[in-house]
Amino acid sequence: MATLSDLRGILADSGYQRDAISAIGAATPLGRTVDPARLEEITSAPTRANTAARLFYMARAVPRADAEALLAPLGCAPLIGAGLLHEDGDRVRAECAVLPVNDLLIARDFESWATGRPMGTDYVLGVGLATRMLAEFTPRDSRNLALDLGTGQGYQALLAGAHAGRVIGTDINRRALRLCGWAVAMNGKSNIELREGSFFEPVQDERGRFDLIVSNPPFVIAPPHDMAAIGGRWEGDRFVEQLLRDIPEHLAEGGVAAVLCNWHHPTPEAWPGRISAWIEGRGVDAWIVQLKHDDPRTYATNWLRESASVESEAAMIAAEAKVDSWLEYYRRIGVGAISLGIVRLRRRTAGPGGPANFIRAESIPMDKHTAPGGAQALRVFDNEVMLRTARTPADLLGHALRLSPDAELHQRLRPAKGAWAPQASVLREMKGFEFPIGLDGLTSAVLARLDGARPVRVIVQEMAGAMKADPEVALSQTAPFIEKMLRTLHLERAGGP
């Protein structure tokens, strides 16, 4: 029996894929403006791919016969029954956009250029930059129970469904849950459950049981408005504050969370203090990375341009006219700068004699990150506990350590005396943040021998013996280096975090 899960293969077979959609969009832009008339011309040939583009990308009604040909052998009836298609005489039209994103089909509301209408208060956004960034930062190891809080179009829930036994997606936007439900069906996922409600209200029965919580919350810092998807009526960054305060008690022991968000602070330098205060003392370890910060005018201008409901020059001008009202709002609530960052948490009960929960906060530009970076976050949590448990750097030499599986040594060579002589050697992480570290021949040799099978102390003593060096001197010189390599995430415990 044909089901919505057949739609993904049907659309791919028709040629309606990400590259084809990108090519159509790239043929029409004038700045940010999309020219619908030009799109009509580009997609005028009677092909299945063009029918798909007109129906699911351009919000056009298409002849029922063309839609039947596109959707064979599934046909229109299952989509009409589900509410994804509507009959309009001898034509059909789609309720929302259906777009391929990587290996998934995502349902989102049509953009304003396609409908000619502004975004409604229950508008469902697509997979944008923030959505993709959060996906890149989220740990992807096996988990039993996962939560996507504020699921929206459901992209994070769908990704979690591939490595978690059970996923719950929540949202206050009933329309978002409807579109997300279609995406769940289209992608053939049977382990994702959707619930309506605010914050953690829909999952109180699972409190303290989540192994993974992921959230791309409505974090835009803006004057009060009615659009829930970008912040609604929460003042400043209060939504993000409440979310981060509530997450720890809903995590299982060892459970992790990933949240991409904005937060504001009085000066650019004060970025760690405000957000750290929301997490401190709540039974979790935290790794907070500030990816960028903006002054209030830049932030307001960028978001007003981004959220202009119709992509036209007039709409841009009208949107930018609101900047002063945003700036006045920022002055009232004490906004001096606004950060964008990723917050990752791990629930850990600090036992007797063990290290207290920690908050590691650092500023690293996004261009120093390579996806995926979830495994690196797990390494941070493990390494920081190891570092904080050691009374002295020498204690670290008793661990069996190995190089990160994502570490690479990059060398610059120059010819010298008929051979290539290293001029510079830099160790970098190729998944996650780079943390570049310059090495010399000796430190490179030490790292290369750390295989995770024996304690570092034994390996250094062997090397010292082979070089006829004093083993105790070698150990004392190596210990601070090992400490640095653990802190910069180039080393990990044998077996991984």
Give the CATH class of the largest domain. Answer: Alpha Beta
Q: What is the distance, rounded to the nearest whole angstrom, between the alpha carbons of the first and last residues?
A: 44 Å
Outline the low-pLDDT stretches.
none
Query: What is the spatial order of strands in the main beta sheet?
Result: 8-7-6-9-10-12-11-13
Beta-sheet strand percentage? Answer: 15-25%
The biggest beta sheet is recorded as: 8 strands, mixed
Assembly state (oligomeric): single chain
Can you tell me the number of structural domains? 3
Content-based structural category: alpha/beta
Number of contiguous helices: 19
Quote the average pLDDT.
91
How would you name the CATH homologous superfamily of the largest domain?
Vaccinia Virus protein VP39
Helix fraction, binned, reads 25-40%
Shape: globular
Per DSSP E runs of 2 or more residues, the count of β-strands stands at 20
Give the CATH topology of the largest domain: Rossmann fold
Proper CATH architecture of the largest domain: 3-Layer(aba) Sandwich
Q: Give the C-alpha Rg.
A: 26 Å
